Amino acid sequence: MRATLFTLLSLALSGFGFAQGPPRLTLPPSGNNQKASVTQHIGPVEVTIGYSSPAVHSPAGEDRRGKIWGKLVAYGLVNPGFGNNKPDPWRAGANENTVFTVSHDVEIEGKLLPAGRYGLHMITGPEEWTLIFNKNSSAWGSFFYEDNEDALRVTVKPKKHDYREWLTYEFTVRKPDEATAEMQWEDLAVAWNIKVKDVNQLYVASLRRELTGSPGFDYEAFNQAAQFCLTTGTDLEQGLKWAETAVSAPFIGKADFETLSTKAQILSKLGRESDAKAAMDAALRAPGTTPLEIHQYGRQLLAAKKSAEALAVFQMNAERNGDAWPVHVGLARGYAATGETQKALEHARKALAQAPDPVNKKSLEDMVQTLSEGRTLSQ
After folding, report:
1. Tens of pLDDT along 49-71?
2. Nearest-CA neighbor of 325 among 300, 290, 298, 289?
3. Which of 35, 226, 247, 253 is most deeply buried (CB count within 10 A of its CB)?
4. Residue 22 falls within a domain, yes or no?
5. What pTM was estimated for this model as a whole?
């Protein structure tokens, strides 16, 4: 009877035996089920699955394909007659617990799982599986599993999969705020969705912490943080504070085109247009602002269909920087956008004579031809 129980322990629960030798010795894993792990970041969230990986072929070489699900790994719960001596789930691998670790709170199949380290167990079935995230992550297999320590259970569907000799975990879908984890073995896979709520707010929280360290002595770090808020539309008021720090904080602030234009763009997104205009004017007139930076801002205005404002910026560039490249390119585009074709053509020809490379030369040749034929210039 005892031999039968230990055979069941070894096979039905995919444990393939206990660790060999005294504790803490470095010896080959039981059953040659090599340890493995996979880590995926979902934004700032780190997810890791650590497991021992059994093979379809047994250590003795037996081909167990077609004998894994419902046989070697029994459906439902199984009492091994050991440990807590009651029906337990599968350990989702071999040997020690399969361990699922997540650095922040996430949603698993739409249900909250707090940040932490969990023993991952599974109740298998021909049509439906239950995934169990248990607070005991340091057990050997499922022999001492207690359901009152479950942090979360979710139900998923198994599916057919290309043959896998070794049990493997992968992240098969990866997006900025979610991923799909999948267990694959033999001809089957089971997957579950992991979603991070408010991922951009997690980035903001991380930026707040990081800016209290050495990056907090660098205006560029504050500008980068402000740019993140700007581009994602996240916590714009916090982004404005960071932008103002980048511009004017004692000892580290720098009022240049980059920092002032970041501040201007955030103010604009907040609907504070008069303040935004003042900040942008300061950016354009800052001592180190280059002709190219002024030109690029004018192009942004053209793209926003603000032709008169764009022309004024291009004209200011000319007043400040004369014939420097790409002043005449901007004037050509600005006058073309406001319907002053002859002035546009005049500046396009001057720009063509200054073209610094073949790409710009070809573009300006096309511009001159388009304007000469009286056609509308594409902005």
Report:
1. 999 999 999 999 999 999 999 99
2. 290
3. 226
4. no
5. 0.81
